[in-house]
Design goal:
The protein is of the alpha/beta class. The chain is built from 7 helices and 15 strands. It folds into 3 domains: 68 residues, OB fold (Dihydrolipoamide Acetyltransferase, E2P) (Beta Barrel), CATH 2.40.50.140; 161 residues, 3-Layer(aba) Sandwich (Rossmann fold); 59 residues, Probable gtpase engc, domain 3 (Ribonucleotide Reductase Protein R1, domain 1, Orthogonal Bundle). A 6-stranded mixed sheet has the order 12-11-10-13-15-14, with helices on both faces. The chain has a 5-stranded mixed β-barrel with strand order 1-2-3-7-6.
Length: 319
């Protein structure tokens, strides 16, 4: 390959203004010059972890590591995005082109937060990713039967649920099998044990871990940035910074119900085609909640999210 021939690779991490791009022959440290537009939209974008980029190699001394200049970004097939009030665009893309989002929640320390899980499920489905639910720290479960009851609606919807423990290695083999040869992003609350699970799946990564705060009962942030780690199984796995809340971006009030799988059998039977399943009469979803065919806790999560997302006419979409 000549010094200026275009190559392609996967952005695995960012450090300052540098983008580290993984190729079949190693990593290339790239800089960014200019702005790019994705084929899927006209908005200017910059690369994020998970993007496939095209770059040109720069000349370097024999002892210097390879460097390059990014000249283009391939269209994204998926994104995980959250709203960010302080961001210029109002949102932040956590990762692109992931095959699946592994949503990791602890049974305790911190307590299982199903409403946050519901938000992450919406974000994953909206971003065109498969979602896998991982319930960690099963060794701390005071009543496993109670946990199973809480998970029942999600299993009925067809979500894969992995029960795991980084201490006893329960579920680690199953999780490793799900990660093989795929690009995966781990997301969940601080302290849920995401980083410890990564180290169980592939010992030797030596990622930092931290305990749950004794004062607040919530997890403390250990991972400070999103980075993809190459797995011996052929896949890539990224551990995101822990979240305590998650704002939904890119979903309107009119479209939100489409990301609640348990609503699917009933949405077409509502009296009004534009039903938001909140206040309208003749709503089949509300009738399903009253009859127990849709879990009330899931419906309450839906209403909470509905209050925070915009109408279709005012919504902006991430790129």
């Amino acid at each position: 390959m000549s010094d200026r021939e275009t190559a392609s690779g996967l952005v695995v991490r960012l450090k300052g203004a540098d983008f580290f791009v993984s190729t079949g022959s190693g990593e290339v440290r790239c800089s960014l010059r200019g702005r790019f537009r994705l084929e899927s939209g006209s908005e200017d974008v910059i690369p994020v972890v998970g993007d496939t980029v095209r770059f040109k190699r720069e000349r370097a001394g024999d002892a210097s590591p390879p460097r390059g200049v990014i000249v283009g970004i391939e269209p994204r097939k998926s994104i995980l995005v959250r709203s960010e009030a302080f961001q210029k665009k109002g949102y932040r893309i956590l990762g692109a082109n992931m095959d699946q989002a592994i949503l990791v929640f602890a049974v305790k320390e911190p307590a299982l937060n199903l409403r946050l899980l519901d938000r992450l499920l919406v974000a994953a489905l909206c971003g065109s990713m498969e979602a896998v639910i991982c319930i960690n720290k099963m060794d701390l479960a005071p009543d496993p039967a109670e946990i199973e009851e809480e998970l029942a609606p999600y299993m009925t919807m067809g979500y894969q649920v992995v029960r795991s423990s980084a201490r006893t290695f329960e579920g680690v083999d199953r999780l490793a099998a799900l990660l093989a040869a795929k690009l995966s992003i781990l997301a969940g609350p601080s302290g849920s044990g995401k980083t410890s699970l990564v180290s169980c799946v592939q010992p030797g990564l030596e990622l930092a871990v931290a305990d749950v705060s004794a004062r607040t009962g919530k997890g403390t942030h250990t991972t400070s940035h999103f980075e993809l780690h190459h797995l011996a199984s052929g896949g890539f796995l990224g551990d995101t910074p822990g979240v305590r809340e998650f704002g939904i971006w890119g979903v309107s009030k009119e479209k939100l119900a489409a990301f609640f799988k348990d609503f699917d059998p009933f949405r077409g039977a509502c009296r009004f085609a534009t039903c938001t399943h909140s206040h309208e009469p003749g709503c089949a979803v509300k009738e399903a909640v009253e009859s127990g065919r849709v879990a009330r806790a899931r419906y309450e999560s839906y209403l909470r999210i509905l209050d925070t997302v915009p109408d279709e006419r005012t919504m902006k979409h991430p790129r």
